[in-house]
Write a structure and sequence with these properties.
single chain; mainly alpha; elongated
Length: 110
């Protein structure tokens, strides 16, 4: 209902700020290391999940899909987009540290 939608929309400004920070970092630093790219892209997914969560709680059917498809879409963006990207970034950082390749220049994508 409306109360749930109001509470859910509070998540959007936070997720949007994180996404904007990640986009600015991408613009400023370029693609750089793949693990950092994964972290930035994961953060950029968050506002999509927040919007879908708000729509679900307000009873809005995105793309003509009734509940629970909208709520599942929110979960998809939060877990498949955000969590998978963060896990990949952390695994890449750990692997780089384990292999002792911190001194190498970052791989640049063209």
């Amino acid at each position: 209902g409306v109360l749930a939608g109001t509470l859910a929309i509070a998540w959007f400004p936070i997720s949007a700020m994180l996404a904007l920070d990640a986009a600015n970092r991408l613009r400023r630093e370029g693609l750089g290391r793949i693990e950092e790219l994964c972290a930035d892209l994961a953060l950029i997914y968050l506002p999509f999940g927040a919007i879908w969560l708000w729509a679900s709680r307000m009873g809005i059917a995105f793309f003509n899909q009734p509940e629970p498809a909208t709520l599942l879409g929110s979960g998809h963006f939060h877990y498949a987009g955000f969590t998978a990207g963060i896990v990949a970034a952390l695994a890449g950082r750990s692997l780089r540290q384990t292999l002792g390749s911190e001194k190498e220049e970052p791989q640049q994508f063209e």
